[in-house]
Amino acid sequence: MLQKISDRWRKKEYRHYFGLVLSAKIVGVLLCLAIIKGVTFYFFTPALADAAAAPPPAYINPINTMWTVIAAFLVFFMQAGFMFLEAGFARTRETVNVLLEGIVDTCLCGLLFYAWGFAFMFSHGNGFIGYHWFFLQGVPDTYEGTGVAFLAYWLFQYAFADTCSTVTSGAMVGRTGFWGDLWYSIGVSGFIYPIIGHWAWGPDGWLTTITPMAFHDFAGSTVVHTIGGFISLAGAIVLGPRIGRKFKRDGGGPMPYHNMTLAAVGGVILWFGWYGFNPGSTLSAMDAAGCGRVAANTTLAACAGGLSAMFWLYPRKNVFDCGITVNGFLAGLVAITCPCYWVSPTGAVILGAVAGVVCVYGVDLLEWLRIDDPVGAWPVHGACGIWGTLSLGLLACGKYGSPGPTGADDSSPVTGLFYGGGTQLLVAQIIGSASITAATFGVSMVMFYLVKLTGTLRVSREGELQGLDLHEHGGSAYPELIGAGSAAAPSAAPEARQPMAAVASPAE
User: Fold this and answer.
1) Spatial separation of the C-alpha atoms in residues 376 and 316, rounded to whole Å
2) CB neighbourhood size of 133 (10 A)
3) How many Å apart are CA 508 and CA 505, to the nearest integer?
4) Are 395 and 347 within 8 A, CB to CB?
5) Which SS3 state, helix, strand or coil, does residue 402 take?
6) Percent of the chain scoring above 70 in pLDDT
7) Which parts of 421-488 fold into alpha helices (H)?
8) Among residues 264, 263, 261, 256, which one has the least CA distance to residue 502?
9) Among candidates 286, 281, 323, 326, which has minimal Cα distance to 302?
10) What average pLDDT score do residues 411-425 get?
11) Rounded Cα–Cα distance for residues 94 and 78 (Å)
């Protein structure tokens, strides 16, 4: 064997071939090592990294995390309230449409908020948009300095995003095509809400850095409700009124509700969910006094709003109207959402009572402008969202600062004009509310006109007369009461129908 190798080695071509093969193998091994090193460097943590050089894991506060998760569950349950409320205020023939729109919007919002919505809103970036944590990649153990587990915080904020998106649909009930619902929902949950919301709630949003006083919005009178309310207003304007809707200026009035039981129960479910919305926004169960104060203020504002709306409307017709009472306590809840941490119980009663009256006049304004808002989404969320935001600049009592992971920090209390705090806070609230309102309304008008150009925003005249449930979804929510043949017939004029008979009316 050795002799054979020796004989071959004496040949020049054999030595050349051997060197070539050996060189190729060496180059191949080195190339493989380089690829392994590069992949490891860019995509993985080196297995033999110095453990001492790694940063210590963030401390996750279990109590605050569970408090946030439970609050997220309560806020998510508000979707049931929205579906009941909107279905009750709508007509019989569009009930399934309201329910399915709420369900699908919830599913769509979750995926969009996972993909990029949360990143736009709550990650670091610049004053106008965040640009990290897309698809929840590279996230830390906790969100900022809250001590709350990151994904628990994501769940809580997803429930808020879903609330804003659902508010939008209220003013567009009864004539919006389902494809149009999907397109504008992508715009709301994926872009408008998270990007504009970043201005006020992002870690580096520009409204949090304005001087001499930063903008405050504790739980979202502006970020959630004003944004949702003005998107709904833009949608109602672009859509136009429902067929047969005759306004008071023209000798008509609002179309009757089809089921006040659903509407009233839905409103109370929303009230219940608000106890996650507002107290949960402390993100800290350790701030026990703050959580209790927020919950009490939330209750008092709702009570004052419901009663003030009912009694303010009573002299017009000498009847106690259930619909305006429901919207009145919702208006109080919307208004208290911004200042709930910083006002006293007396301040909560005052601003809630004013919100009930604002809601009544908001409905009157839409009626005078001939804008069809079947649920009252803009008077409740848009108008009262603005009032609640501005009320902080007036009624912040000067005793409370901000919640923290281990308790309240009252070293820098928030003080409004009526408590000797001057106008700085009020000016900051005006700047923040006006900026977000104007941006939301302008962008929303563009979005709805673009969706309208696709031909999917509004159903055909025949489809609207038939009813969205049959036209879009192939079935009615009340098949025993409404036959397919009679439901396809045009509806009677709204002024000719009685509210209590609306449920059983074949035309509905």
Assistant:
1) 19
2) 20
3) 5
4) yes
5) strand
6) 83
7) 424-453, 461-466, 468-473, 484-487
8) 256
9) 326
10) 96
11) 20
Measured CA to CA, the distance from residue 387 to residue 248 in angstroms comes to 26
Q: Tokens 């104060």 — which residue?
A: 293
Phi and psi based region of residue 455 (left: phi greater than 0; alpha: psi -120 to 50; beta: remaining) = left
3-state percent helix, strand, coil for the chain, nearest multiple of 5? 70, 0, 30
Per-residue CA distances from 154 to 41, 159, 244, 256, 291 (Å): 29, 9, 43, 39, 20
Contacts within 8 Å (CB) and 24+ apart, 141-146:
141/57, 141/58, 141/60, 142/58, 142/59, 142/60, 142/61, 144/203, 145/405, 146/61, 146/64, 146/283, 146/284, 146/405
Three-state secondary structure call for residue 125: strand
The confidence score (pLDDT) of residue 27 equals 56
Other CB atoms within 10 Å distance of the CB of residue 61: 21
**Neighbour count for residue 244 (Cβ, 10 Å):** 18
Q: Which residues of 265-296 are buried (b: 16+ CB within 10 A; e: fewer)?
A: bbbebbbebbbbbbbbbbbbbbbeebbebbbe
Residue 276 vs residues 225, 241, 490: alpha-carbon distances, Å: 15, 35, 43
Six-digit token pair at 457?
């925003």
**Distance in Å from the first CA to the final CA of the chain:** 100
Q: Is the pLDDT of residue 491 over 50?
A: no
Which spans in 241-344 are helix H? 260-277, 288-317, 322-336
- Would you call 130 helix, strand, or coil by DSSP? strand
What is the amino acid identity at position 225? H
Asked if CATH classification 1.20.810.10 holds for the domain at 64-453, the reply, yes or no, is: no
* 178: nearest Cα among 379, 422, 457: 457
Note whether 74 and 277 are within 8 A (CB).
yes
Helices (H) and strands (E) in the chain, counts: 19, 0
- Is the link from the previous residue into 413 a cis peptide, with omega within 30 of 0? no
Model confidence pLDDT, tens digit, residues 134-176: 999 999 999 999 999 999 999 999 999 999 999 999 999 999 9
pLDDT of residue 211: 83
- Beta carbons of 376 and 233 less than 8 angstroms apart: no
- C-alpha distances out from residue 238 to 225, 232, 379, 463, 504, Å: 20, 10, 18, 18, 31
Instruction: Indicate if the alpha-carbon torsion angle 308, 309, 315, 317 is positive or negative.
Output: negative
Distance in angstroms (rounded) separating the CA atoms of residues 306 and 311: 9
pTM: 0.85
Lowest mean pLDDT among 43-47, 174-178, 374-378: 43-47
